[in-house]
Amino acid sequence: MKKFDFRLESVLKVRGLHKKMAEREVAIARAKVNKNQQELEQTKEEFDRSFHFLAGQDANLHFWHQLTSNYQANLKKREAELIERREELKEKLEVEKKNLSRRMKEEKAIEKLKDYQQQVHQEEVERTFQKEIEEIDLLKRGNKG
Predict the structure, then answer these.
(1) At how many degrees (to 10) do helices 62-144 and 9-56 cross?
(2) What is the largest CA-CA distance in the chain?
(3) CA distance 20 to 104
(4) Which of 38, 53, 115, 135 has the maximum number of C-beta atoms within 10 A of its C-beta?
(5) pTM above the 0.70 mark?
(6) Angle at 7 between CA 5 and CA 119, to 5 degrees
(7) Which parts of the chain are coiled coil (predicted)?
(8) How far apart are CA 71 and CA 75, in angstroms?
(9) What residues contact residue 65 under an 8 Å CB cut-off, 6+ apart?
(10) Does residue 57 contact residue 64 with C-beta atoms inside 8 Å?
(11) Cα–Cα distance between 100 and 121 in angstroms, integer?
(12) Measured between alpha carbons, how far is 122 from 2 in angstroms, rounded to an integer?
């Protein structure tokens, strides 16, 4: 019996590698979004701490007020930058998810083709086997008669 040979096996392997690379890119993009979110939360916490620090200082200490105000302004600027970056990262994540979805569909299409061709091959093997059995049966009957 002839062994099943899928001619597009190498294409299927390449598609599988593309899918794994797309999965990796999604994971990297998701990690960047999470890191950005943590940085944003840390910046907001730092702003709150500086606000509480300023509130606890003597109002006559103009120096502390000026210093903390500048620090808070920088923190607000950093927060705005992080929010903007988060949006960019989320967009990249969505692009990578779509890429992964496309890669998965491509791989699945090749796998379905492989399954179909394997089924056709198996049916052909079974027909050949059945023919051989029928020929043997005919030969046995011919030898008896």
Answers:
(1) 160
(2) 125
(3) 9
(4) 53
(5) no
(6) 50
(7) 19-126
(8) 6
(9) 54, 57, 59
(10) yes
(11) 31
(12) 10
In order along its 145 residues, the chain shows pLDDT tens digits of: 678 777 888 888 888 899 999 999 999 999 999 999 999 899 888 877 776 666 665 555 666 667 777 877 888 898 899 999 999 999 999 999 999 999 999 999 989 999 999 999 999 999 999 999 998 888 888 877 5
Place of tokens 């903390």: 68
Chain centre to alpha carbon of residue 17: 12
Domain regions of the chain by residue span:
9-107
Give the whole-angstrom CA distance, residue 116 versus residue 106: 16
Dist. CA 87–CA 70, nearest whole Å:
26
Produce one character per residue of 5-23: b if its CB has 16 or more CB atoms within 10 Å, e if not: ebeeeeebeebbebbeebe
Tokens of residue 110, six digits = 């090749």
Q: Which two tokens stand for residue 134?
A: 């029928």
